[in-house]
Structures are given as structure tokens and as C-alpha cells.
Amino acid sequence: MRPHLAYVFERFPSFTQTFCAREVLELERQGVRPLLFSVRDTRGERPRHFPDDLYQRVHFLPAEKELVDWVRHEKKAGRLPQEIVLSLRHWGERPDKMRVYEAAYIGRQLQEAGVRHVHSHFAGIGARVGWWLRHAYDCTFSFTGHANDILCAETGLDVNLARLMADASLVVTVSDFTAGDLRRRFPAAAGKIKRVYNGLGLARFTSLETAPPDASPDASSSAPPLILSVGRLIEKKGYPDLIDACARLRARGIPFRCDIAGDGPLEEELRARIAAHRLEGVVRLLGATPQEEIVRHLAHTRVFALACATERDGGMDNLPTVIMEAMAARVPCVSTRLAGVPEMIEPGVTGLLVAEHDIEALADALATLLADPALARRMGEAGRERAARLFAQETTVAELIRHFAARGLMTVDPGLIARRPSLAGAFARQGAWRLARLARCRAWRRRRAPDFLDAGPAAHPR
Fold first, then answer.
1. 276 is in which domain, residue-wise?
2. Could you tell me the pLDDT band of residue 117, with boundaries at 50, 70 and 90?
3. Of 138, 247, 303, 326, which is most buried by a Cβ count within 10 Å?
């Protein structure tokens, strides 16, 4: 059967971006048929958290040399759009030239499948491929912006964030914080910016309801209460602040353990900090940890901590999935008032928030929950209810589908309308919307295409 739309990822599926796989699988469960492309081949990545048949449904692009050879062959055979041919001819060695090759390859697959819209996660490689598909193959494109990709976007690229914002048919972002930031920076695009939270599958946390509170999976029930943190060992996760707060807790004589799951470039620096505070055996770096092990640890955690911080270049976490998972597991959370985090943690109800880099306040918040198991349980229950209400993937994906349908970005499908009657009106309007868009696109290309192709994307009108 004909796909409803396509997704173009830089890497898919990837264990560092499990929310992307969850979104695709939930789209399929709700009756949407996405055509899947991944620029990079992830089949050798470990660990693998996804069904094997998901890999079989992904079109992995050829390696760079093979892809370039394919494009050259198609060019000689006269089977490429003029926009692709002329752009490759005039672009020389500009940065991001591979996006043109990738668009040429994917565009052929889209034509054969009859797909007219592509969506991508992150304002990065996938979105820029989508931009080229729009101009070479009369497709529409959209993308979901997350954190650093929109808060401190790459510079020096011809197809930059401003151009993506101007030409996308829909811009999704995962928090009210970033939606407001994008509307302020790109007012002309404000009407097409929509907030859709990342979705979470709650089912795998259901079994945690009967887990004995604070019972350790690898120690006796008399073990001190556990602080858990999960994330890459990078600047924006704030692990130096968490380790320093742990030193304050021990200085106060408060019993606890702290496990940090994840790997990354700051590992040696953090080990040295733990040693400097003489916290060996109290604070542990667990390294890369499989998802099922994270879930097991959450079942025995008193408080989840993530001391989010602003990086030197302005980057930061936006809506950390790990906080969402802790809430779903009925674990109260301690974090910082940064970006979208306050949209997740309701202070005093589902957890506690402090200012970034306020070590004393962070230690106080952790101490409050370590000392009061009943309060921790109440906050954990409230967090589970909030996660179910705001972040259940059934809800967030249904909202995403409505936005696709409302802007005519999905192929008409009577079967899907039968399953989702609320989409009937949106689908009924999309034929006229597409014809109007196609006419505008062709008119623009008749007027401006030669200048654009000679000069490259920098000449594209804003």
C-alpha cells in the first residue's frame, strides 16, 4: 500500500534517539504508513533496543562513494531533475554538498512510492535533505526541532536554520519554551510552529508498581537510598554539580548512594572529581547502560537527579527524556529551572527545581527527598499521573498526525479516515491546498530558479 509520508533521518534507528523509534512505531500502530530513510547505516550499532523488523523497513542510503557514483550515472542517463544537475555543477566544494546527492537518491524513491511529504527530526542533516527535496522534487518538508539544533544551530551552512524555518511547511518542537523562542526569532514562521511533546511508552513501567520501595537490585534492603542519574557525560548534564552536591550530602552525614548511568567525553574528569571528594563507592559511574537495566534501577530509586546546565556555547537540554521516564516510573525528580524542564517537573508536586549551578540548593533538594520516603512516594505518584497526561505516546503521536493532516502533509487514505474520523475534514481540504502550493512553487521556479541554481542556496529569496 502507498505510504502516507516519509521520514528522513540522519541516523535511524539509534539507541541514543529512542524517541524517534517510539514515534515511528506508534505512527504505524495508529494506522500511518511512513516510508523510512536513514542517511547513515545504523545496523552495526550496539546496544539495539528495537525490533529487528524495524531495521528491515528502513532504506539505508549507500555509502558516500557509492552514492556519488549512482548520482553520476543517473545524471549521464538524464534521469535527474535539472535543479540537482545544475546545483552540483555550480556548487564546487561547498559545505553540505552531500545533502544534494542524498536528496537526489531519496527523491527517486519518493517518486516511485508516490510520496509528497518528508519529515525529519532535528534541524540538521535530515531537515536539510528535506529542503533540497522541496526544491528539486516539488515535495513539502517539515522537521521537529529539539534542543541544540535550534538553540545554537550550525553556522556557515547555506541551508541554515533561517532557511529551514522559512521553507518548511510545518515546524514541530518539543516544548513551549522552544516554541516561544522560535516564534520570537522567526516571527514570519510563527503560524506553522507547533509544540508536540516527545512521547513515552508507559507500558514498560507498569510492572514497577509492585516493586518494593528503595529495595536495591544488588544489595541488601538496608542499603542507603539511591539517587539515580542517566545521560551522556557531557557539559549540559551538569554532572560536576551533582557530584559536588553529593559531597555536601556526605558532609552533612546523610546516608545515600548515587549511580550515574552513561558514558561520554567527561568520564575521566568526573572520576577525578569523585576521587577528589573521596566519594569512591558512594558515587558510581556505571557507563553505557541498556534501557532494560535503567528501568530496573528506577524501580529501586528514591530520587532521580539531573542538574541540567547551560553549555559555554549556549546549548542546553530542553525536554530530557530521562526525566520523563523517571516520572513514569513513579520516581520524584530534582533538576534545574532550564528550558523545558519546568514543563515536566511541577515544583513541590512531582519534584523539586533549583537554579543551575546552585550546589547548596541542589544538595538541599536531594536531602529533602532522601529524608522523607512518604513525600518521595507522593511526588512519584503525582509524576506518574503527569507523565500519563502529557507525555503518553498515544496522545503525542495523535497530535502530530493532526498537524500533518491539517496542513495537507499526508496522502489521502480512506482507510485512515475510517480509523480516525476526526481527520476527515483536514483530508478533504488537502487536495485544494496541494494544488495551490504546487502552483506557487512552479511560479517561483520560473521566475527565480536560474539565479538560485547559479549562485547556490545563498541566493534563495527569504
1. 203-390
2. very high
3. 326
Q: What is the dihedral of CA 19, 25, 28, 30, to 10 degrees?
A: -70
Q: What's the total number of domains in the chain?
A: 2
C-alpha atoms less than 13 angstroms from C-alpha of 98 in its C-beta half-sphere: 13
Rg (CA), the chain: 24
Choosing from 362, 390, 418, the residue where a domain stops is 390
pLDDT tens, position by position, 445-462? 544 443 444 444 444 433
Same domain, 209 and 137: no
pTM for the structure as a whole: 0.88
In which order are the strands placed within the sheet that holds 5-11?
58-60, 34-40, 5-11, 117-121, 140-145, 170-173, 193-195
Residues 253 and 302 in one domain: yes
The 10s digit of each residue's pLDDT in 359-390 is 999 999 999 999 999 999 999 999 999 999 99
Write out pLDDT tens, residues 289-311. 988 899 999 999 999 999 999 99
Task: Express each pLDDT in 175-204 by its tens digit.
Answer: 999 999 999 999 999 999 999 999 999 988
Q: Three cell numbers at 167?
A: 521553507
pLDDT at 210 over 70: no
